[in-house]
Amino acid sequence: MPITRVSRLAAASLLLATAACGSDDDPGRAGATEPSGGQAVSGPVTVFAAASLTDAFGALASAFEDANPDASVELNFGASSALREQILAGAPADVFASANTANMDQVVEAGAVEGEPEVFARNELQIVVPAGNPGDVRGLDDFADPDLLVGLCAEQAPCGQFGRRVLANANVTPAQDTDEPDVRSLLTKVEAADLDVGLVYATDVRAAGDAVEGIEIPEEDNVVADYPVAALSAATEPDVAAAFVAFVLSAAGQDVLASYGFMPA
Amino acid sequence: MSERGATTRYAERRRRGGARPPWGLVPLAGLALAFLVVPFVALLQRAPWSSLGQRIGDPMVTDALRLSLVSAFAATAISLVVGIPLAWLLARADIPGRSLLRAVVILPMVLPPVVGGAALLFAFGRRGLLGGPVYDGSGFLLPFSIWGVIAANTFVAMPFLVVTVEAGLRSADRRYEDAAATLGAGRWTVFRRVTLPMVAPSVVAGAVLCWARALGEFGATVTFAGNLAGRTQTMPLAVFLALESDRDAAIALSLVLIAVSLAVLVPLRDRWLAA
């Protein structure tokens, strides 16, 4: 998919930049870029990852390929719920990284996971508005404003469930104009100012850069999403799948995730 | 006598549409049919028959079905009104760059619908090429409303009508039009009384294709019009989201969509296209 290629390229250059900064500041961290397993693996690995991981996993995949020159990572992003369905329907996935534990649990129950899933990152929600905040959004209360173009994720996607929980915590009944199928399509519509306000992950706000502005949600209303990752039992190259999971959990992987705004697990 | 009899029988069989096929066609036709039918059989076999009635009565389903039907018929109507004239221009008018125009008309058929939806946003969104000035002037907005659904459906489905009608026009015998003109009929009268009736089967076939494509539209709709139950959530959107949470519901919705399409398409085919 061309889109993935482009974002991976961008992510790779960003990673290079951050890696360069890291080694300048702190030479001790250079050792952390070695994969934890030590031994380089070879072969393909197909990773199904939540839409909110698009940029971070693009960078992780490049870093993994740098550390394992004979390995190649194929990435497939989508709503965790959609990916779960694809995996349960027998899609050729070797690793699954979900934006919530519920979808991972269902894959585990189906017996499709090798070993135990591990939480590798956490994320919280943020209010996102287009640059310049044309709707003059101040906080969660504005989600009830019928004059604003309000977007949420669909209830089926984790960001939709978290978003509804945040609004319920704040006692706000949203007057949304659309329930987008996944977090990236919601973000895209806010970036283009086709929507005045949406609820996305803090990492998405960061990834969108200058096109959007983020508004913090009060701590007592916010929810924190746990991101679990697991190698799948149907993996064609189990050792590559396991190595990729280990890499995500390694210090190097955690550095990449942190650079995209994810909180440590 | 026997030769004449054979000719008559052959003509008789042809009238009934029962030509004997060349032997090589049958297995290939069977293969094509099986490929098209087996997925539907599989769908039926997975259907949650016991809870089907209750699922179909769900307001979410009836809303989505109503919206799908309204927007598919509206898109077909719009396509007929502006698409037939466009087909005529492409087939008959002496305009420069006609092959390029034809390619442009087919573009929405080739484009991934999601890209089509994004292009619609760039054109008619709140910050769009045309949508921006209109929104600033009047506050009217296509996206996130049924008008957006109809616009997305029309964008994706109209080319099917235009291409079909254009083919009909190009294969129609123009001598009838010439005769009518020689007899003093004006250009509009010729178009209305001679050309249109002559290509009526193409118009109906094109309208059916257009309607069917609009009814199943997903990508452009979700990208341009968004997804909100009761307002912009058509059946394909409801099916897509249901697939992620409740597969039985998704299958039930698909069955409704299939049943409705058959209910519309089968009588139409018999009446208009079998002649």
Rg of chain A (CA only): 18 Å
Major pleated sheet of chain B: none
Low-confidence stretches of chain A: 1-37
Largest sheet of chain A: 9 strands, mixed
The total count of helices of chain A amounts to 9
Number of strands of chain B: 0
Main structural class of chain B: mainly alpha
In one word, what is the shape of chain A?
elongated
Q: Assembly state here?
A: heterodimer
In terms of DSSP E residues, the strand content of chain A is 15-25%
Count of beta strands of chain A: 9
**Beta-strand proportion of chain B:** under 5%
SSE topology sketch:
The complex is a heterodimer of chains A (265) and B (275).
Chain A: H1 2-25, E1 43-50, H2 54-67, E2 71-78, H3 80-88, E3 95-97, H4 101-109, E4 113-130, E5 150-153, H5 158-169, E6 178-180, H6 183-191, E7 197-201, H7 202-208, E8 212-215, E9 224-232, H8 238-249, H9 251-259
Parallel strand pairs in A: 1-2, 1-3, 5-6, 5-7
Antiparallel strand pairs in A: 3-9, 4-7, 4-8, 4-9
Chain B: H1 2-15, H2 25-46, H3 52-56, H4 59-92, H5 98-110, H6 113-124, H7 131-138, H8 146-171, H9 175-182, H10 187-198, H11 200-215, H12 219-224, H13 235-245, H14 247-273
Helix pairs in contact in B: 4-8, 4-11, 4-13, 5-8, 8-11, 9-10, 11-14, 13-14
Short description:
Chain A contains nine helices and nine strands. With 265 residues, chain A is α/β, with parallel strands linked by helices.
Characterise this structure:
The complex is a heterodimer of chains A (265) and B (275). Chain A has 265 residues and is of the alpha/beta class. Helix content of chain A is 40%, strand content 23%. In chain A, strands 1, 2, 3, 4, 5, 6, 7, 8 and 9 form a 9-stranded mixed sheet that branches. In chain A, helix 2 links the parallel strand 1 (43-50) and strand 2. In chain A, helix 1 crosses helix 2 (54-67). Chain B is mostly helical. Chain B is built from 14 helices and no strands.
